[in-house]
Design brief:
The chain is an alpha/beta fold. It has a single domain, classed as Beta Polymerase, domain 2, CATH 3.30.460.40. Helix content is about 50%, strand content about 10%.
């Protein structure tokens, strides 16, 4: 029997905010939490992707908490070796075939030495390829034992032909390494796509795996990705930690990449993730960068962003919100489109939801909510609080499943 959901919600909020403070400024006193709160702290650490980082940075001396963090770090380090080997095989195969790829996000952060093996979990490998090279890149992945799982609007997802996802809490060494293949780098905020592909592609790519054109280009991608997650209330503490670490490497000129592409969008989306980073990592973001970005950020989004906490824009807030992300609308017309699609999803959105139901373990093992018609889900939102299925999957794994949590 799970505790009352209001107790779970309050515990997740309390532990999430405490973990964020401890990760940014280690050395705090061990909290006097109950057994349930320590279990919820494990949930928060796992869903925010920071368990292995906390293993090295958190000084809290609770025995089962220390054991959980050490176990998670061991799994992430083992998984990192698998990913590094796979990246080497992809690089070698792409060189032979003359395909230029860019290894994105987590792979690039590791390549820069910002993380040691075992520090940062990677759910999958993200690769950018030119549209004209997509077919040979797919053939390469198939030769490496991958099959296409589903096609989303911004990428194609490939999974190993063999292997099954881990059904417990957090990271596991045997979880299959998926690959997401992108031909564009873009996010919908909330319904209009922001495309920064031109800032991410190397000017003179070579066959094999390529780095970003500059650290500023990597930061641009991290900020857009974090913005997309903020808009969808799925931000992770790991995203903020990535941004804070990389920010320390950037010169004043590196930040200009955000504004360098005259044909692209102005970086109006970058202010919210940077404000949140600065909230938890004081002095990590230069005030002149924030001031320059504030001039281009829509007023409603700018005001909302100044009130954001990590909990309220992540899965640590237990309740679903039917109108999440509307503050990202930049016009009355866009707001109307956003509300219209919440009431009547597009055919593409319905197909992607069906793909998620088919492929995501946290949707398959939850209650019947995921399979309800859209109309019945709207009715539920209007009549009662509805818990997030991704969060509840982690909570159940911690409280009911094979215990690797405190």
């Amino acid at each position: 029997m799970l505790p009352p959901l209001k107790v779970v919600r309050a515990g997740l909020r309390r532990t999430t905010e405490a973990l964020a403070a401890e990760l940014a400024r280690p050395g705090g006193a061990t909290p006097p939490w109950s057994a349930l709160e320590w279990q919820l702290a494990a949930v928060a650490a796992a869903v925010h992707g920071v368990s292995p980082l906390l293993c090295r940075r958190c000084a809290w001396q609770h025995p089962s908490w220390r054991s959980f963090l050490a176990d998670q770090r061991a799994h992430v380090e083992h998984r990192h070796r698998r990913i590094a080997t796979l990246l080497q095989r992809i690089d070698a195969g792409a060189r032979v075939r003359g395909i230029a790829l860019v290894a994105l996000k987590g792979s690039a952060l590791h390549a820069l030495g910002l993380y040691a093996p075992g520090d940062r979990p990677m759910a999958d490998i993200d690769l950018l390829v030119r549209a004209e090279d997509a077919a040979p890149a797919i053939a390469l992945l198939q030769e490496l034992g991958y099959v296409e799982s589903f096609v989303a609007w911004k990428h194609r997802v490939f999974r190993p032909a063999a292997g099954a996802p881990f059904a417990g809490l957090g990271e596991h060494r045997d979880t299959p390494v998926n690959i997401e293949l992108h031909t564009r780098i873009q996010e919908r905020l909330p319904v209009t796509a922001v495309d920064i592909t031109a800032r991410i592609r190397p000017p003179q790519p070579r066959p094999g795996l390529n780095p970003y054109p500059s650290p500023g280009a990597l930061m641009n991608h991290l900020l857009l990705h974090a913005a997309g997650n903020l808009c969808n209330r799925s931000l992770r503490l790991l995203h903020l930690h990535d941004i804070a670490l990389l920010s320390a490497r950037l010169s004043a000129g590196d930040w200009n990449v955000l504004w360098d592409d005259p044909a692209g969008d102005a970086p109006w989306y970058a202010l919210p993730p940077l404000l949140l980073t600065a909230r938890y990592y004081p002095d990590s973001i230069a005030t002149d960068v924030l001031a320059r970005l504030a001039t281009g950020c829509p007023a409603l989004l700018r005001m909302a962003s100044r009130r954001h906490t990590l909990t309220c824009v992540s899965c640590s807030d237990l309740w679903l919100h039917a109108l999440h992300g509307i503050e990202w609308s930049r016009s009355v017309g866009e707001l109307g489109r956003c509300l219209g699609q919440r009431i009547r999803p597009t055919r593409e959105a319905s197909r992607e939801r069906a793909d998620m139901l088919r492929t995501q373990l946290w949707l398959q093992q939850g209650p019947d909510w995921a399979g309800l018609s859209h109309g019945r889900r709207i009715l539920a939102w209007l009549t009662r609080p509805v818990p997030r299925m991704d969060t509840m999957f982690a909570v159940r794994a911690a409280l009911e499943g094979p215990a690797r949590a405190p």
